[in-house]
Amino acid sequence: MAENLIISESANKQERYESLIPQIEALITGETDVIANLSNIAAALRYGMGFFWVGFYLVKDEQLVLGPFQGPVACTRINKGKGVCGTSWAEKRTVLVPDVDAFPGHIACSSDSKSEIVLPAFKNGEVALILDVDSDQLNDFDEQDQQQLEKLMRIIERFL
Q: How far apart are CA 19 and CA 150, in angstroms?
């Protein structure tokens, strides 16, 4: 099991992802506890990519319930279809938001959050959890983030 991440500070975004995702996979390989794995993934993403906030919301009793995260305190429960996370859950798709203030119904857990990407992970064809990544910069996420983070979500689905 890997216990240290090695990310070059001079690497560009693509190089960081290419280095980080295999390290995350190694970090969680052999561990069967979902919360332990999600905790390490959140920490690895925040540290390795320098994101403002990284966290998971787990589907429980028809709500998204806050799971492991790194960053400022967060909203504890989100209803289906509400905000960016609830929209991703309801529509079963990645939602990329360049400016959260322009997103109808955005839930402002932190006023410092400016842009966001939210991705679902599936178990038995249904959304089991959501990965929420926030930035304190406008328009901070792009197709490259989406492709790489969706790759990570397929890894996560293997242990759900």
A: 16
Q: What is the rounded CA–CA span in Å between residue 130 and residue 159?
A: 14
Residue 1 domain-assigned? Answer: no
**Host domain of residue 129:** 13-157
Please report whether residue 144 resides in a domain: yes
The C-alpha atoms of residue 138 and residue 136 are separated, in whole angstroms, by 7
pTM over 0.70? The answer is yes
Strands (E) in the chain, as ranges, are 53-60, 63-70, 77-79, 95-97, 115-123, 126-135
Q: 75-125 pLDDT, tens per residue?
A: 999 999 999 999 999 999 999 999 998 998 777 777 788 999 999 999 999
> Which residues, other chains included, contact 20 with Cβ-Cβ below 8 Å and sequence gap of 6+?
5, 7, 44, 45, 48, 49
